[in-house]
Amino acid sequence: xxxxxxFLNVMFxxxxxxxxxxxxKPVTLQVGNARAPVTKEAVPTAKIVGLIKEIMPExxxxxxxxxxxxxxxxxxxTDGKRVDVEVDRAGPKITATxxxx
Length: 101
Prior knowledge:
Blueprint: H1 4-13, E1 18-22, E2 28-31, E3 34-37, H2 45-55, H3 61-65, E4 70-78, E5 81-90, E6 93-100
Antiparallel strand pairs: 1-2, 1-6, 2-3, 4-5, 5-6
């Protein structure tokens, strides 16, 4: 089980619309227009890259590891539920949005 699966399980349990990971901010659950942190600690860029690499298709990993600006999107299935994953990178900052498909 990938580390992000526990956050995704909470998202599905709470009928959330997304799990958000942003450089140097806590992991956040979005339910409708409301956002609430689900971790106390801020997550550094390197940790977010590691979490995303756990769930992304192997062939896409070099694109994420390259560290350049850009966007990557892929699907992921956890516990039989599909999740759309979008990762945006701009310089040293990264933002990942994981939402029910």
